[in-house]
Amino acid sequence: MISIFEVNETNKMIEQENLDVRTITLGISLLDCIDSDLEKLNEKIYNKITTYAKDLVATGEKISAQYGIPIVNKRISVTPIGLIGGAACKTTDDFVTIARTLDKAAKQVGVNFIGGYTALVSKGMTPAEELLIRSIPQALASTERVCSSVNVGSTKTGINMDAVKLMGEIILETAQATKEQDSLGCAKLVVFCNAPDDNPFMAGAFHGVTEADSIINVGVSGPGVVKTALEKVRGEDFETLCEMIKRTAFKVTRVGQLVAREASKMLGVPFGIVDLSLAPTPAIGDSVAEILEEIGLERAGAPGTTAALALLNDQVKKGGVMASTAVGGLSGAFIPVSEDQGMIDAVTAGALTIEKLEAMTCVCSVGLDMIAVPGDTKASTISGIIADEAAIGMVNQKTTAVRLIPVIGKGVGETVEFGGLLGYAPIMPVNNFSCDAFVARGGRIPAPIHSFKN
């Protein structure tokens, strides 16, 4: 039973501290749509998505109105298209037709994004998965709402360096294909190690093959709530600080659990998970960087930043798991540059570099996210950054990801504006010493010894 005190407290968090449910994401299996005829495949995909998701947006709006909880995004994730399109797609253009079908279906039902233009290639690539990957630049340039992801490594299989090399090239091609929009296509493309099957957040959401026919996953967000709570314990010891974060995360997750249960009931779709990730926005006061600064740092990136982020991430998880029957997805602290005003300010002040961000990803469950880099960055350099991040995920048995945006025609010191939740970002310098010979070796970096558990 929720008390009147909890209701009032939740209202305050929503009105004054930027609490929201960042997304309700409907996962839809497309396994029963597989067909060797491309036209029939596209028809089946469109019909299934528009049938299953026809009430998703209206349901989100109804819950938001009923409980006064902002639900910012309504999204769809589907089974990785690298699996679904294998029988019908013989060229990259064939795969692009599926991307356009996904986009058309997403527009029809009114969702913000649809994820699952995805290939899972951590150990090797099938011909169809390679075709899908090579089609990504054209697919993202010719659609508005489609998001793409590629899983290039895992703790169990190691890192597929052929895929890593290819993704460095594909990211640059995507940047070129969307250069008129400041290379916006790259904001809808993420490269994973240990990608989760139930992530509700874009651009990396896809519907895992072990999931039910459809599922509801919810992502909550409350950086502003956590920061405001920590202001009450300014100067206190770490035990007091941790207890406050944990209690606040519990309250935030309770909101997500409520929304997930209601959406599940209204849509007649099983409840999957609540993702505990702290997802910032460009709004003032809704920043993970500002939480780190409230913990005691002059700027995010100062000495102590990694320790502060580790503390934050752990306490959010400890509080969240007590508030929900099922926690999953990424459940970490997002540390994107472009979507977090505090991170932008830290980069501008010279406190935060890509190398420090990489160190921070060792203790959170996301990765190098929404980082704008010079448009003349080499493909091999991007591949090297992907390999570094994948290695962190592989060795530490955790999810890591890279979403780099080489902004064609722009360099260090310039700014790129994406708009909306994507915000804006300063172009960050990258290490320009060559890793060409390393990336060119090809093959697979073997899984670590602790991956063998049978």
Automatic annotation (TrEMBL):
NCBIfam families: PRK05313.1. Belongs to the UPF0210 family. Homodimer. This is UPF0210 protein G5B17_08800.
